[in-house]
């Protein structure tokens, strides 16, 4: 089975089931989608709204409709010519679960003892179950520890710092078979593999998976800006955070108005994570380092992981990243650590430090530094690089051509269930880079009236407010609660600051009705729409397999989860699609119908199959405001930097077109080379021959 032409991601929840997905299948087919891309479908914890907390990998989730519902959904998709791509979670399961209960009952004698990554040398399984235990409570209940002590004394590997998600040893063939047999029996088009960096041997895992599955295979691998996917992995590519950085970046103007030292913040954030919430993992690794004092080994292990230039190395394949981390580390035991890792790159020490480095980087960078370094948050995205301001057009062309040559079937994304903010919020915030003085003056003026006492959260709050406006006080309040606690500066999930928490909770109601806020949001709305349409068209036509996250075929101004898992109104989308199919050319306005038009037409074109990549370059005074390229007789044209462009207009800028008659499928009109004429209706154009 080959890759689908495109995907549409849905988030299954108890209120959006297999039957609901079956009900929108005809809409997705009309939209032009190639495959439904589903969040995890195996049985998960009751009430789960994401499905990553798998409790039983041997059956489809009953809460979503179970086996009958799954079969009916797949049959309907097949009738409509749609594939099914399923998200799977090989790294962990939620505890308790039936296998885990058996381990707790029988210890190492349990047939499932080998299924979980438990350090049996430290005694019985340590399971933090008390919210906060006093010594009297511990004695009364005959329990060893509360959840705070779990971060330092836990003796099983988990998913990041979530004690309820216990790591699974899929490197063991028996465990692999037990956890994969069911989903592999479904005959799906593709698989999306969650969090491969947590596995003992990702390359080995993918090779084993390939022995059982010959469909489309993409991995949630977060790459650094210049990091390639390991060549030894038999996969089609990543889930698209690398493409997200490039597509969004090309719509951001270079400026130093928001400059700062991101790496200083990042280093401190990673160090705090290694020294606190992941200290149990650090200590377990340190016990494997021979010939040095235990505390020195702990310091060396933590420092090396903090200094990783990427999420993890895949030794011996990624040895250059390991060498960089070692070179930057000064702890006295680093040499001994390095020697032992190099001596046995597949041994337990090397394996565990690789599994854990991704945790330190992800929790330290994405979940801490990105909430602390808030100078310009449009860049603070999963796989993003806040220190790289924008992406030059020529670099975009180079990277797009490389993707076509190396991983043409990799997924590309703009919004996911994990993004810090939706694509349309990001596109609107990109406008601020074109008018930094105006924005910073607004932020300063408003902060004088209603500023939060913690400066980095204050910057994040104002950008989030104008980026997602209009937004309810409840949604903004929930977001700022999460952001403030993830930042771990004046409050955190573990150590609450009641006074500061109250200040943060009260802020949305104070600012939402300020006329200056509405006025500034209105100022950036139209250029934000231009960026949104531009980046969407580019993603849908550029190399890779584009994913449309649920609901984002219209404007979607969501913030981080769970805000981005709100219900999608498919009734409205069907009505607008009906009008578009009847020939309606919507205005670019609050309805978002113009975006639906772009998505509909681009997916239709995409379904024909696109190959190759040829940059096209405009000529004239406004040439820098165009991104254009051709693939298989299809040309995408997008406007860049609309605020600056509005000051001069296109004037006599032209886009020389390849020979032939070209038609803009968005408007149905012949395509002139004059950009003032080509882009007079929409800030984007999609040209085909004829």
TrEMBL record:
A Pfam family annotated for this UniProt entry: Alpha-amylase
CDD domains the record matches: AmyAc_MTSase (cd11336)
Residue ranges annotated for the Glycosyl hydrolase family 13 catalytic domain, each copy included: 18-475
NCBIfam families: trehalose_TreY
Protein's UniProt name: Malto-oligosyltrehalose synthase
Name of the gene encoding the protein in the UniProt record: treY
